[in-house]
Task: inverse folding
């Protein structure tokens, strides 16, 4: 998984540098703010990809005396930073577009805007297809995929706007064509903002040790039920009370705590070990690094059931 994640980040880095640099040159040559905005948006992502690479390296490092639980928090931190930087770029683009509108618009070449939108959308889709397998199992690769999906959407809006400007410029509303460029930037910012907010929200939730997504919680509950049944120590004479389950996901590590409040003198350490093995073996199918704690206790206070 680490190799797949690193490869995905490297692909994203190279594609961002090539397409972003090309967009800046194209935007300056065509005098189109929306193309220039797209290029700046992509080039700003180079720094974020570098941060993601460092986060991946930190998260993949082994626990040490200084970091006994590892450094998996680097992953959601990088995701949140990427979302925050994307929001900052959108605010800059929107503010610039408003200034241009009040200044009387821009005379960007509509044909050039249309051509760029088509080329950029196709290129973004190609990168997104390459990233998709790694994005299914890596938060960092998924953040990159979200950025490329946003870029593809932005490019599609640019292409549609370029086509609209060509149509408008040929009719009685020719003066309105000067406003297509900044209006496109505002539309693109509005469309991309939810994706950026989602990145920030997901990263912050993990840093605050929120519960994992619903599909993971369901699989944890299933693993607990199946693990208890497969342990071989529960039967008609001895039954366990409902499990107290707490979990949180931090990057690629999933922390799971399962507590059972039992009666005194009924269960042994061997029983606890059997139940622990039954549960942890089934948690391994989650494609995450599992840090599981399974305990049987007679003291409800120790189970931290709140």
Result:
């Amino acid at each position: 998984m680490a190799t797949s994640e690193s490869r995905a980040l490297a692909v994203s880095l190279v594609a961002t540098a090539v397409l972003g640099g090309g967009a800046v040159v194209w935007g300056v040559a065509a005098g189109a703010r929306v193309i220039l905005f797209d290029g700046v948006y992509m080039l700003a992502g180079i720094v974020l990809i570098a941060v993601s690479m460092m986060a991946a390296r930190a998260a993949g490092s082994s626990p040490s005396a200084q970091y006994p639980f590892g450094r998996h928090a680097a992953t959601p931190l990088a995701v949140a930073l990427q979302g925050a930087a994307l929001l900052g770029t959108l605010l800059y683009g929107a503010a610039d577009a408003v200034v241009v509108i009040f200044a009387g618009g821009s005379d960007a070449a509509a044909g050039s805007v249309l051509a760029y939108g088509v080329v950029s959308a196709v290129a973004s889709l190609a990168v997104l297809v390459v990233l998709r397998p790694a994005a299914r199992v890596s938060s960092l690769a998924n953040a990159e995929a979200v950025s490329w999906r946003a870029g593809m959407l932005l490019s599609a809006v640019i292409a549609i706007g370029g086509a609209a400007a060509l149509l408008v410029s040929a009719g009685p509303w020719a003066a309105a064509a000067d406003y297509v460029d900044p209006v496109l930037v505002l539309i693109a910012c509005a469309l991309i903002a939810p994706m950026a907010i989602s990145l920030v929200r997901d990263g912050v939730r993990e840093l605050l040790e929120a519960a994992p997504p619903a599909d993971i919680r369901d699989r944890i509950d299933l693993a607990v039920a199946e693990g208890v049944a497969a342990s071989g120590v529960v039967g008609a004479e001895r039954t366990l009370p409902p499990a107290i389950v707490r979990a949180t996901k931090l990057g690629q590590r999933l922390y799971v705590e399962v507590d059972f409040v039992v009666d005194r003198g009924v269960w042994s350490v061997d029983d606890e070990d059997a139940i622990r093995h039954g549960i942890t073996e089934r948690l391994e199918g989650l494609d995450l690094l599992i840090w599981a704690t399974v305990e049987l206790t007679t003291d409800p206070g120790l189970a931290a059931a709140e």
User: Anything to note?
Assistant: Residues 2-207 form a domain with the Alpha-lytic protease prodomain-like fold (CATH 1.20.1510.10). The chain has two domains: 2-207, 214-303. The chain is about 65% helix and 10% strand. Strands lie at 244-250, 253-261, 289-297.
